[in-house]
Every structure is written in structure tokens, then in C-alpha cells.
UniProtKB/TrEMBL annotation:
Limits of the Rab-GAP TBC domain: 77-264
Single GO molecular function: GTPase activator activity
Superkingdom: Eukaryota
Organism the protein comes from: Hippocampus comes
Name under which the protein is recorded: Ecotropic viral integration site 5 protein homolog
Length: 333
């Protein structure tokens, strides 16, 4: 079940295969952040998927044109051993990096504005504090995160640093080196979510799109939200800006990102629709949320609705036929 464990008196410190720490006392295991699943696909299936993705990467220019096959493979999930190569290829970061060699090193060596340094420095130990990469201020995880975020403020001095970029960059660093993580962050900020991390706050528009999609696809949940004066901006802003890093179990999060890098922002909207449906889709669920505060609390604790069912959740997210894809494509893609 676990990667390794260390005994401290009546407690056991457990580190799972994803490098997250948990505390066990007796037979009780506390996985307070992500409800981490400690099992995965059968090894033979993993090897088959690795072989398919290695073939895709070896023939990238040809296979990239066959979008349907690419989407299918992303829906099945990219093997964890290959995300360091696949995500940058999918989002265009590899191409940007190849056309801007040594730029990250140059930005990394420059001194940033002190105001950004101070804000970034305060945020470092808030990102995944129970992951082995980010336990120590002097560890490679927090140092790498500082480098990536500081370099971004140098790359986009007018935009600077948005705190929602911290957990996004941290997840990237869990899967790839700092330079690749930087260019993936650039692509996310400029190409996938333009305006999300700037004063323009394009997310306001996408939140209104989410309202419309919920009205069309989940009318009972939509009416409940309207009845209790709950606007999507109240709960979905953090979902979308942080790419669900704070609201999904880690395995499910990685699977969502596989789809996101392949299909763009519409995946995030579709995840939001599924989560609202899971929280408020049934009459008995809505009865338990008698007011605005109760409804918001259930939506903020949404990770409880996605446990140990990555394949089921992803199948529910993609494809969701209907309005969300059409609306998102028309206004962004």
C-alpha cells in the first residue's frame, strides 16, 4: 500500500508512492489533503500505455494532426513516467523552449523586483506542505518553485506574480525539471488561460459561461444556486485559477491535467459542471444545503465527492456532450 513508513512512538509516518506524507495512529490513517489513492493501473497496462506514448512522442508531428487519437490516449491517462515529456509537448512548451534556448537561465540569474520576491517567498511553504519536495525551505522543491515563479515575473514584468500560479507551478515541478515547468506555466498563462492571472481577470467571463452551462445541463442545481444567491464566482474562481490543484485527489488532478493540456480550458469548465452535479445533483443533497453558507461549504469541500474512482470521474468529465464545449470554443479557441 505505502511506499515506506517510519515509526514514531504511537504514530507512523507514511509516505505513499506519490510522495505525500500522512500520519497513522493505530489503524487510522489521516490523508488530510488529497484522500490519496495508493493503488494504480495494472503494471502490464501501464507498460502498454507507456509504449503507445513513446510511439506518439517519436512521431509527434505526424500523430499530432490526428487529434481524435490524441484525445483518446489523454482520456486513458498519460503514464506518470512520461508526463515530464508529454505535457510540454502537448501544451507547446517544448517548442517555446527550443526557440528560446537559455532564456530561462538568463531570467533565473537576474534579480527580480523585491515586492515579487517577498510575496513569492511567503507563498513557498503553502504549496503542498505534505509533499516531500516542499517540506523544507532549503529543499529542492521550494527552491525550484521560487526559481520558476521569480523567472515568470521577469518574463512578464507588467503582469508579475499571481498567487494562484503557486500551486500550478508546484504540480508542474512534481512532474518535470524547473525549465520545462517554467515554459509550461508560460503556456498555461498565455495560451490556455490568457487573462486569468492579470488584472483583466478573464475568469469573470468564464464564470458567467459556467452559469449558463449549469442552467442548461444541471437545471436543478442551477435553481438551487440561484435560490440561495450562490454565484459561480464564489466557489469556481479558486477551482479554475488553480486548475483544481486544491480541490481534487491528486490522481484525479493529474488525469484532468492530461485532458486539459490536450483540449484546453473547456476541460476545466466540464470538471466544474461535474463537481457541481455531484454535490447538488440529487434532491437529498440539496435538502442538506439550506442556505448560502451550507451550499458554499459543500462546494468548497468537493474533493470528498471524488475518491478512488479516477476512471469513472474522467469518463464523466470527458466527453460531456452539449453546450460547454461549443461555448468555450467559440469565445477562446
Amino acid at each position: 500500500m505505502c511506499h515506506f513508513s517510519v515509526i514514531f512512538g504511537d504514530y507512523v509516518l507514511i509516505v505513499n508512492k506519490l510522495a505525500f506524507y500522512a500520519i497513522a495512529e493505530g489503524n487510522e490513517i489521516s490523508t488530510y489533503l488529497f484522500f490519496i489513492r495508493m493503488v494504480g493501473p495494472h503494471p502490464q497496462l501501464v507498460r502498454q500505455r507507456e509504449a503507445k506514448w513513446i510511439n506518439i512522442m517519436d512521431q509527434w508531428q505526424t500523430i499530432f494532426l490526428k487529434k481524435t487519437n490524441m484525445v483518446l490516449q489523454c482520456q486513458k491517462g498519460i503514464p506518470s513516467s512520461l508526463r515530464a515529456r508529454c505535457w510540454p509537448l502537448l501544451c507547446g512548451a517544448t517548442n517555446r523552449m527550443n526557440h528560446n534556448k537559455q532564456l530561462f537561465q538568463s531570467l533565473d540569474s537576474q534579480s527580480a523586483l523585491q515586492k515579487w520576491v517577498d510575496i513569492i517567498d511567503k507563498d513557498l511553504d503553502r504549496q503542498f506542505p505534505f509533499h516531500e519536495m516542499f517540506l523544507s525551505k532549503d529543499g529542492h522543491g521550494q527552491q525550484g518553485l521560487f526559481r520558476v515563479l521569480k523567472a515568470y515575473t521577469q518574463y512578464q514584468p507588467e503582469e508579475g506574480y499571481c498567487q494562484a500560479q503557486g500551486p500550478v507551478a508546484a504540480v508542474l515541478l512534481m512532474n518535470m525539471p524547473a525549465e520545462e515547468a517554467f515554459w509550461c506555466l508560460v503556456q498555461i498563462s498565455e495560451y490556455y488561460l490568457p487573462g486569468y492571472y492579470s488584472p483583466l481577470l478573464v475568469i469573470l467571463f468564464d464564470a458567467s459561461v459556467l452559469t449558463w452551462v449549469l442552467k442548461k445541463t444541471c437545471p436543478s442545481a442551477y435553481k438551487h444556486l440561484q435560490r440561495h444567491a450562490v454565484e459561480p464566482l464564489m466557489f469556481a474562481t479558486d477551482w479554475l485559477m488553480c486548475l483544481f490543484t486544491r480541490h481534487l485527489p491528486f490522481n484525479a488532478l493529474l488525469r484532468v491535467w492530461d485532458l486539459f493540456f490536450c483540449n484546453g480550458v473547456r476541460v476545466l469548465l466540464q470538471v466544474a459542471v461535474v463537481l457541481v452535479r455531484r454535490v447538488l445533483g440529487r434532491a437529498e443533497q440539496r435538502k442538506q444545503c439550506q442556505g448560502q453558507m451550507e451550499t458554499l461549504q459543500r462546494l468548497r469541500d468537493v474533493r470528498c465527492e471524488v475518491q478512488k474512482e479516477d476512471d469513472t470521474f474522467i469518463a464523466e468529465v470527458w466527453p460531456i456532450h452539449g453546450h460547454s464545449s461549443k461555448v468555450t470554443v467559440s469565445h477562446r479557441w
